Amino acid sequence: MLQNIPLYDICSLSDINQDDILISRFAPYLDTHKNLFTTHRHSFYHLVLFTAGGGTHSIDFENFEVKPGQIYFMIPGQVHSWAFEGFTDGYIINFSASFIQSFLLQHGYLESFSFFSGNLADAVINLPDQTYKAIKPLFEAILAEAATPALSAGDMVRLLMLQIFILVNRVGVASVLNGNASYNQTLIKSFKNLIEHHYTDVRLPKDYAAMLYITPNHLNAVCKDIMGISAGELIRNRILLEAKRMLINQKLSISEISLKLNFSDNSYFTKFFKKLENITPEEFRKKLINDHGK
Questions:
Q1: Which residues belong to any copy of the HTH araC/xylS-type domain (predicted)?
Q2: How many other C-beta atoms are found inside a 10 Å radius of the C-beta of residue 195?
């Protein structure tokens, strides 16, 4: 029975005393950490570039098909599992926020990349051939630096990682066609950042609109144009995601989860969850336990 979803830090996954970064080819990493196939969470940033393999991987309860040339990014706290088919390989880098931030003066630099926002639509990217061919040697260079550290090896790894981030980010930026779209994308990003910080205590779109110095109608129109859903749905979806993450933890009762998410009572929380997910929180938890036991 699933008692509590594991939360891994870098130290628990490394053979050496290293709590800032772990770099590896993917196949040997999988052989060493077979426990990571089942649902788990990370306390660190995590990225994988697939060079071979098939099957699926799941991030925050959404499944993605594994493809060579696909890169995905995860932020601390997200829920994750793998279901590979056949031999799977690539590159993996696990790193702490401080590993990169210690190298930069700009606070929050990682969050400037859309794939580190926690939005799954931006976090799993099937790379164009040109980008894939450009970043694969960078991963090889990172592995080489890790295998035989030279003077300022850590800084070289940071530089190579930043090159990867910038090149991958250009794939997304290239899809922005005009200045208005760029402004709306920035607005959505700011809205999502506000939701991330306030979803337990601020529930109404009009309150977020006030924080953004725009009208509620403007906010809703931009959300529908860019995301295809209303501002209210974005807020509710974030609350639902956190509820799902908490429901994995068997040590938390439904009432405790309801309280942590700032619902007035357990009944209201259950109605909220069932309206969005079509099952009750208890049923969702039982399904997770059954799936985990397969």
A1: 189-287
A2: 17
The domain spans of the chain are 7-173, 179-292
The CATH classification of domain 7-173, taken from the options 2.60.120.280, 3.60.10.10, 3.40.50.720, 3.50.50.60? 2.60.120.280
Q: Could you tell me how far CA 178 lies from the centroid of its own chain?
A: 27
Angle (deg, nearest 10), helices 231-247 and 179-198? 40
Instruction: Select from 246, 100, 240 the least CA-distant residue to 161.
Output: 100
In tens, the pLDDT along 140-167 reads 999 999 998 889 899 999 999 999 999 9
pTM for the full predicted model: 0.81
Q: Which residues pair with 71 in a beta bridge?
A: 49, 125
CATH ID of 179-292, from 3.50.50.60, 3.30.230.80, 1.10.10.60, 3.30.590.10? 1.10.10.60
